[in-house]
Automatic annotation (TrEMBL):
It comes from Biostraticola tofi. Its cofactor is FAD. The keyword rRNA-binding does not apply. Residues 6-393 form the RsdA/BaiN/AoA(So)-like Rossmann fold-like domain. Keywords: FAD, Flavoprotein. Residues 189-340 form the RsdA/BaiN/AoA(So)-like insert domain. SUPFAM superfamilies: FAD/NAD(P)-binding domain, HI0933 insert domain-like. This is NAD(P)/FAD-dependent oxidoreductase.
Length: 395
């Protein structure tokens, strides 16, 4: 005889733990399964160990999906303020770092402990190191095959995440379940991911590895982010590059403005006034790291002259070069280092109110496995919380 549960949630990550806890607290008998040996592994890794758990400025425009409207309902019904309230009820101190990004003061472990405590309050049964080898539709729900024996579930929630960071337990399980039940999967690709560069440029800028500069980075579709750019030994990373990676397609160029916060011609005029015999290189070193200036000289040739010798045309040229640096990435580092997976279960086949499959009653998909991703900065966890909450209301 199969062991019986009202709800089985597969994936004890952010979305799965939260949904299981809420369902349990509403009186349902809930089983939460995960393939790993600990729950919430990505939460623990996130935000440099402090978990950037939400953002003050959550809005649907910060999310990407083939259907940009899909995320609206869940995000509006369970907001960042609701999650902040939950954190406060558990006595977890937090702070805003930048751009509305909220982090734990202490450790991401507090978020995992909070979710586990919520699961305990809902008497959720948690089974780790559990992999489902098969799922079949039954008269009243689903039968799941596990090595320990079959389990029957009236309702099934898939919260197994995307493909990013296989080292943290990511598998294509959720996409396979979707396909088994006839739900299409929007093709996936790595997002919020560092770029790799073609060899010639990579060799030219190799000495910049570890240097960070503020930058305004634009994709060919016009999307722009102004955050730091970090040079790495493989290419380019940092928040501006991770953000723009979600909008970049193979073969496209990025345009990088390395002087996002100053009026360079006004700056030059002031410097010319104060230090007419200063070299252009030394002048540039006042607004950019010296290592970068040396490297830029190798790339683009900074005129070897003093400010008073610089012609207006030369001024225009170097300003333009720094403001419109066009770079064609070779590719990205892929799922190995990506924070999220773009694409996933096609939202046209899910209810935006409940996350339930429109064709298979009782089957739900929540969190990153769905074709919804957010910007860097707490937006992806908020999607996990909001979609989990929306689902739990319907169970
Ligand atoms: P998640 O991936 O969290 O959980 C899925 C769970 O399912 C995992 O526990 C996995 O082991 C399990 N699983 C997979 N296959 C299975 C199978 N076959 N059987 C059983 N279980 C299975 N976002 C943000 O908003 N702020 C941040 O600071 C960060 N930081 C960050 C850092 C790093 C290093 C990464 C990789 C990602 C982030 N993110 C983030 C993104 C965020 O972690 C991500 O969007 C959410 O964890 C998604 O939550 P889910 O619950 O949908 O999937």
């Amino acid at each position: 005889m199969a062991e019986k549960f009202d709800v089985v949630v597969i994936g004890a990550g952010a979305a799965g733990m939260f949904c299981a806890a809420l369902a349990g607290q509403s009186g349902l008998r809930v089983l939460l399964l995960d393939n790993g040996k600990r729950p919430g592994r990505k939460i623990l890794m996130s935000g440099g160990g402090r978990c950037n758990f939400t953002n003050l400025y959550i809005e649907p425009a910060a999310y990407l999906s083939q259907n940009p409207h899909f995320c609206k309902s869940a995000l509006a019904r369970y907001t960042q303020w609701d999650f902040i309230d939950l954190m406060q009820r558990h006595g977890i101190a937090w702070h805003e770092k930048t751009l509305g990004q909220l982090f734990c003061d202490d450790s991401a472990q507090q978020v995992v402990d909070m979710l586990l405590n919520e699961c305990r309050a809902g008497q959720v049964t948690l089974r780790l190191r559990s992999e489902v080898s098969g799922i079949a539709r039954a008269d009243e729900g689903f039968v799941l095959n596990l090595p320990q024996g079959d389990i029957s579930a009236a309702q099934l929630v898939i919260a197994s995440g995307g493909l990013s960071m296989p080292g943290l337990g990511a598998t294509p399980f959720g996409y396979k379940v979707a396909q088994q039940f006839g739900l299409p999967v929007v093709p996936t690709r790595a997002a919020l991911v560092p770029f790799t560069l073609h060899k010639p440029l990579l060799e030219q800028i190799s000495q910049l590895s570890g240097v960070a500069v503020p930058a305004l980075v634009s994709a060919e579709n016009g999307t722009v982010f102004r955050e730091n750019l970090l040079f790495t030994h493989r290419g380019m990373s940092g928040p501006s590059m991770l953000q723009i990676s979600s909008y970049w397609h193979s073969g496209e160029y990025l345009t990088i403005n390395l002087l996002p916060d100053i009026d360079p011609l006004a700056f030059l005029a002031e410097e010319l006034n104060a230090h007419p015999n200063q070299s252009l290189k030394n002048t540039l070193s006042k607004i950019l790291p010296r290592r970068f200036v040396e490297c830029w000289h190798l790339l683009h040739g900074i005129p070897e002259c003093t400010l008073k010798q610089l012609t207006p045309r030369q001024q225009q040229e170097w300003v333009l070069a720094l403001q419109q640096w066009r770079v064609q990435p070779n590719g990205t580092e892929g799922y190995r280092t990506a924070e999220v997976t773009q694409g996933g279960v096609d939202t046209r086949y899910l209810s935006s109110k409940t996350m339930e499959s429109s064709q298979v009653p009782g089957l739900y998909f929540i969190g990153e496995v769905v074709d919804v991703i957010g910007w860097l900065g707490g937006y992806n966890f908020q999607w996990a919380w909001s979609s989990a909450w929306a689902c739990a209301q319907a169970l």
